[in-house]
Request: fold
Amino acid sequence: MFAEIAASFQQDNVYLKFMLILGFLSMAVVFERLIMLQFVYNLDFPKFLGDLRKLLTPEDTSRALSFCKSVSNTSLPGITRRALEAAETDPTTIRGVIEEETIAFLPRIEMRVGAIMAFSTLILLTGVLGSIDSLWNTFHAVSVLDSTQKQASLGGEVARALNPTAFGVFLSMVILVGYYMIRGMALRLTERMHYGVAVISNLLVPAEVTSFMPISMSASPVSRDTGANTVAHTGAQSSSASSPSEGASQDANVADTSAENIRDEEEII
Reply:
């Protein structure tokens, strides 16, 4: 198979050359992502967080800031450095700075990873297209030959037509291995970043105090309405209780007046 592919390269097969260019581009992306994820963004997260806990104190953040600058300018040390700078200027902005820097950095981990899969698919489809084109040319050429010449040339032409597909499948398999390796590294790094950001938030963000009003200080409208209804009901009961006594006193006054009038009439007689 490989000898036939090499012979097709010598015959200046356009599809094979195009797939080779795409293969070089995809492998360049794989090696670039490998270097960035393994040697630039990656670090010993437990050791970094442990050293940061030892150096970080509420009164002095300069030592922790110098430590972050010495480790790296990207990834978790870069986010920590920005958070420490915010802690020195305005502690209320620490949480916002951590969120902004994290959101800005995480897409850099997944950058160009999807392009590797796109290159692999494009290479495979190009190989299939090259084989179809070669088969068309083969059948058109065989149709004008005699029957004896058709049998002799048809087998070799069909075998050479499969070279682009074979090369595309082989190259696509190699690129897929690199893709899944880079994809796994990116997922692990993202999980470690989430853990590190959570630890930094717990170390730097001050505790939030929730203000509330005691229940005794804030009477609800329902209780006030209930109290008003109670007072009104009590007043109504007192007024209804006092009304019989007032009626009795009025009857007594009428009786006294009538008695005085009777005595006056007796004196006149």
Observations:
- The CA atoms of residues 65 and 81 lie 6 Å apart.
- The chain has two domains: 2-204, 220-269.
